[in-house]
Design a protein that fits this description.
Length: about 675
Amino acid sequence: MSHRIAALVTGPRSAVLVALVPFLLALVLIGAVGEADRADRSTDSLPAGLDSTEGTALLDRLPEDVSTAAIVLFTAKDGELSGVQLTALRDAAGDLGSRGGTPAGEQASPLVPSEDGTAALLAIPVPSGSATEVADTVKELRTAADEAAPDGVEAQVTGPAAVQADLAAVFDGANTRLLLVTALVVAVLLVITYRSPVLWLVPLAVVGIADRLAAVLATQVMAAVDVAWDESTVGILSVLVFGAGTDYALLLISRYRDELRTEESRYQAMAHALRRTAEAVIASATTVVLGLLTLLLSLTPTTRGLGLACAVGVVVAATFALAVLPAALVLFGRWVFWPRVPHVGETVMVESGTVWHKIGERVARRPGTVITGSLLLLAVMAIGLFRIDLGLDQAEQFLDEPEAISAATRLAESFPAGTADPTQVVTTGSPEKVLDAVRSVEGVTSARVSDSGNGVSVIDAVLSGRSGENTDTVEALRDAVAPYDAHVTGSEAEAIDEREGSDRDLRLIVPLILVLVLGGLVLLLRSAVAPVLLVLTVVATYAAAMGASWWLFTGPLGFGAMDSGVPLFAFLFLVALGVDYNIFLVTRAREESAGHGSRDGMLRALSATGGVITSAGILLAAVFAVLGVLPLVVLAQLGTIICLGVLLDTLLVRTLLVPAIAMRLGDRFWWPRQVG
């Protein structure tokens, strides 16, 4: 950042304007414009061009009064359903069908008892609509079913409509809870870091406004360019803005505190701190933004939306950290650091015997041993990487199992497993021929034409396998109906295609991220050796975090598999954010090496940045762990991997491994650049 810009941001006269004008403009935009709305599309979360996505798109051509299914399951609490109980349930079936808001021309099925006599089901068409409308209908149906169930009979509602309703309930107020918990975690960690009753309020207020502004700008940008987003997008955006914004704030404030020990004027001190911090923050933010924008190459629309939204968020966070925060801080005197107020003449951190300086000295004595031990530990942790199973079925998507899932599990004990969620074959050809082809496939228990209109017909196929066990049957279905211009969709087919889409995204986007990060480091450091080594350490951290997390998932957390989208998101966030800390360390090391040589320069850099980077890493890890507030397995898994990876990167890789490599190589670490 140039001297003129730094002087403008931190000047005695201009600081008030720089601090207040963006702040007020942000408040106006947040209040007057707000977050954008967008009508959801049925294919928003499906990978483009794959079979289930094409089938789902064809479903949109059906008449507007098309319905989804809710299945009321009645089970005997003890033994089998009696004749009296079955009679009462048959008498109630008509009333329950009307409670579902059955569309014109469609009727609820008759009550179907199971062969084992312990259960009976009633399929009720529910008008398709918004998630809120379907949720309200399912809620009313559940109340009516409970009232209709005779003594000794339990009523539950499952089926696609109930799953949609329960998924909507997961996100009901979830983003607000996530924001509040994130802000609370950041506030607590800032108080612990600064040990001041006042200072933490300034960065928290700045980052908080940046977060709300980022949500408004990101959704407005996505709406303007017609990029999809879903319920979790704004929540993940908030986590990233709070994490990255607070990291940038910690780095700036740490440098500002150091400058206050050598400079009487707080305005000059902030100008010096800003100039020396800006390069690292801008390089870090640029790396993260470029990495996030690679998600625009994803096949899945909501993944593209997440990348664009988070890129906007990081730009906003970095802008507020480099403009609004410095101006806001200089409006206060040194007293804002109370009770640990920095004074001119105090020892600067790089010259003191801090714990980080002592760690650096130990690393410098035996860098080879530290390198070997660190790499061995990472390798052991990464072993689980080769055991990972990808792909969660519908029953495994929720941390707390909702009624729709538990009822589907119980239904599969007495009826064919696919009854609650039939696989759909959608065709523009002859429905009779497609129906015959579907019935000929092994693993299909029953099939019927369930809907037609506007040249599109739908065949519901009940599969015999449980959820997640029908891959071969779905593939056989696709082969059987391929000659009839038909597509296979439904949750089973969508899960198969999501895995295929995620695999394609992983193979395309991961190498691109590595190239972008490596190129950014080469431009920043003007070195050929250091960037390659830094990228390799971050990749090793990712492998270790994935491997160790897999043991956590299959052990204490009890997950059967990893969501197919998690590896890509975890790689993106860990590599982009992990490089941040290396950038903070090596840019300071390069600065110190100019006057003290490579070895002492790295030692002084570790002493100077150790505390702030460790605080930033712990804070970022805690913030991503907050994703567990949303009761979806995919977000819990993502939060766990990033939390563990950031801690590894902060406490092991950046503290021990990178300094050891730099000290072992000496000037060769910076080759071909000369730093001494």
